[in-house]
Amino acid sequence: MNDKLKWAGRVVTALLVPLFLMGIVMMIKKDPQAIQGMMKLGWPASAVNTILTLEALSLVLYLIPRTAVLGAVLLTGYLGGAVATHLRAGESPALAVVVGVVVWLGLWLREPRLWELLPLRRAEKR
């Protein structure tokens, strides 16, 4: 395996962690802005603990090498819910889509077994 690609994947993954941790910490603290934001998007305040648990568990699984693929799948589902929520509220889902792509990019770069499933191919010479 190319060590440069593996390290690039680790860096990409490390850049995602603060983004997810910020949301987790805000929900743990029951930050009024976070609660109001969720309610504005149509989520009741009672959903905070469930969403917090799903996000935190998915992130932990993503960061453990043996469960990283499962974590990426769960984070994709979590972010899919964010996309649907933003679309329903008439807001742009761009950030959730970009984060989802970066989740898979980070995993793809650090997990060579995914290269067979999701190969990048060179253009054929004519």
Overview of this structure, please?
The protein has 126 residues and is an all-alpha fold. The protein has one domain (3-117). The chain is built from 6 helices and no strands. It has helices spanning 3-28, 32-40, 48-63, 68-88, 94-110, 113-117. α1 packs antiparallel against α3 (48-63) and α1 packs across α5 (94-110). The longest helix is centred in the N-terminal third of the chain and has 26 residues, at 3-28. The two termini are 30 Å apart. 17% of the residues are buried. The mean pLDDT is 91.
List keywords for this structure.
126 residues, mainly alpha, 6 helices, 0% strand
What does this entry show, briefly?
The chain has one domain (3-117). Helix content is 75%, strand content 0%. The protein has helices spanning 3-28, 32-40, 48-63, 68-88, 94-110, 113-117.
Secondary-structure blueprint:
Elements: H1 3-28, H2 32-40, H3 48-63, H4 68-88, H5 94-110, H6 113-117
Helix pairs in contact: 1-3, 1-5, 3-4, 4-5
Please tally the β strands and state the result. Answer: 0
Unreliable sequence segments:
none
Shape: elongated
| SS field, number of helical segments | 6
Strand content: under 5%
Elements, N to C (H/E) = HHHHHH
Helix content, binned percent: over 70%
Count of distinct structural domains? 1
Give the class from helix and strand content and strand pairing.
Answer: mainly alpha
**Strand count, sense and closure of the main sheet?**
none
Radius of gyration: 17 Å
> How far apart, in Å, are the first and last alpha carbons?
30 Å
Mean pLDDT over the residues? 91
